[in-house]
Design a protein that fits this description.
There is one protein chain. The protein has one helix and eight strands; from the N terminus they run H-E-E-E-E-E-E-E-E. The chain is of the alpha+beta class and 154 residues long. An eight-stranded antiparallel barrel has the order 1-2-3-4-5-6-7-8. Strand 4 and strand 5 form a beta hairpin. The protein starts with a helix and ends in a 6-residue tail after the last strand.
Length: 154
């Protein structure tokens, strides 16, 4: 074994941890700032969401928060912050193609989370001003997101 391998591995772990903490602090800052965003209609899905994700393939699950902003008439941008085993934090962004329905918005999106996290995921769901549900599927995983609007103090 090369004597510098443990040092390189330790540096990688430390730098990865710092990068994740920076991303979380940015999300947390934006999460707190978004407390003033209120739904403008019964089908408005912009703003803060909080709930859980659950894998139907392997039973894994965790907490989930999301910030959604409108990009255009039929496009939203979603920023997710998830927990895994209550100690690991993971975040990613994606655009959602949306179609207005009578009492909700139907949306679809995809995000490449990298090979370590399962690759390309496809999302399909519905949201209104109070409830957000979505399924997700990749080559090796499938499951669901279930979220509601958080209380003001969270």
């Amino acid at each position: 074994m090369n004597p510098s391998t443990p040092k390189r591995c330790s540096k990688f772990i430390i730098l990865s941890g710092l990068a994740l903490m920076c991303g979380c602090s940015s999300f947390d800052r934006d999460w707190k700032a978004a407390t003033t965003i209120k739904p403008e209609s019964p089908t408005d899905m912009t703003g803060r969401w909080q709930g859980t994700w659950a894998s139907d393939a392997n039973g894994h699950n965790g907490g989930l928060r999301c910030l959604i902003t409108r990009k255009g008439d039929n496009t939203y941008h979603a920023r997710y912050a998830a927990t895994y085993w209550s100690i690991f934090h993971f975040g990613y962004d994606m655009d959602l193609a949306a179609e207005q329905q009578v009492d909700s918005v139907h949306f679809k999106g995809e995000a490449d989370l990298g090979s370590m996290a399962g690759g390309l995921y496809h999302y399909d769901g519905h949201a209104n001003a109070a409830d957000f549900t979505s399924t997700y599927q990749s080559e090796s995983d499938r499951g669901r997101f279930t979220m509601k609007r958080p209380s003001e103090e969270k």
